[in-house]
Specification:
Blueprint lengths: L6 H19 L4 E2 L1 H8 L3 H9 L5 E2 L3 E3 H11 L6 E6 L3 H8 L8 E8 L8 E2 L2 E2 L1 E2 L3 H8 L3 E4 L3 H14 L3 E4 L12 E4 L2 H9 L4
Parallel strand pairs: 4-5, 4-9, 5-8, 9-10, 10-11
Antiparallel strand pairs: 1-3, 2-3, 6-7
């Protein structure tokens, strides 16, 4: 593996992993780049090229052993272990994330939920007791948590990110509708549904 692999390639690996997991659940044992490509709308050549960055996972004419490829991609993405995740923000969106059960089966577990609202602190959200932001950095350091999700209003997101990074977080999934200023060793992914809707309306007649 090399550090020079384009981020766009890394971004496609979870998509491949999801499709392979679905095939395994359907009872299939072998697949091909052609079949994956048809399922995902990605060319078979692109899939083969992406996977070749990480080694030879299949043989020409015989395809890919699905369970083996799943294990290899889990190792590449480091999701063959469970990652604890901090969730900041217990409003409507944060509450929905806290209730979502799909994280655990794919390598992630929400460990704690934080908010700064006195009306939310101490309340139960998705099985978690919401804790005060005042205690956030201490808990993150104690548990050596490296991943966080931000679901706070835009005007609070940068302040929250700064505190998370100071506590040792190095990967942030940001749902707040703004771009964050972070050090180069901190990776941020953005999820803004409105941006995606605006991107799609361009194509509507």
């Amino acid at each position: 593996m090399t550090a020079n692999i384009p981020d766009i390639v890394i971004g496609r690996l979870p998509v491949y992993l999801r499709a392979l997991t679905r095939l395994a659940q359907e009872g299939q044992e072998v697949t091909s780049s052609h079949e994956l490509g048809q399922r995902l709308g990605i060319s078979s050549a692109q899939i083969r090229k992406d996977l070749s960055h990480f080694g030879g996972f299949g043989k020409q004419g015989t395809g890919y052993q699905i369970h083996y490829l799943i294990e290899q991609l889990q190792q590449v993405l480091k999701v063959n272990q469970e990652w604890e995740v901090v969730l900041v923000g217990a409003g409507d969106l944060g509450s929905a994330l806290a209730h979502y059960r799909g994280f655990t089966e794919r390598g992630f577990r929400i460990a704690c939920v934080f908010d700064n609202s006195p009306t939310k602190i101490g309340k139960q959200v998705g099985g978690f007791a919401v804790m005060s932001l005042d205690n956030m950095q201490e808990i993150i350091r104690e548990r050596a948590i490296k991943i966080a999700m931000i679901a706070v209003p835009a005007e609070k997101a940068q302040e929250v990110a700064d505190r998370l990074i100071e506590a040792g977080v190095r990967a942030i999934l940001n749902y707040a509708p703004m771009n964050l200023n972070v050090p180069t060793d901190v990776h941020v992914q953005y999820i803004d549904p409105v941006v995606q809707l605006q991107r799609m309306t361009y194509y509507l007649s």
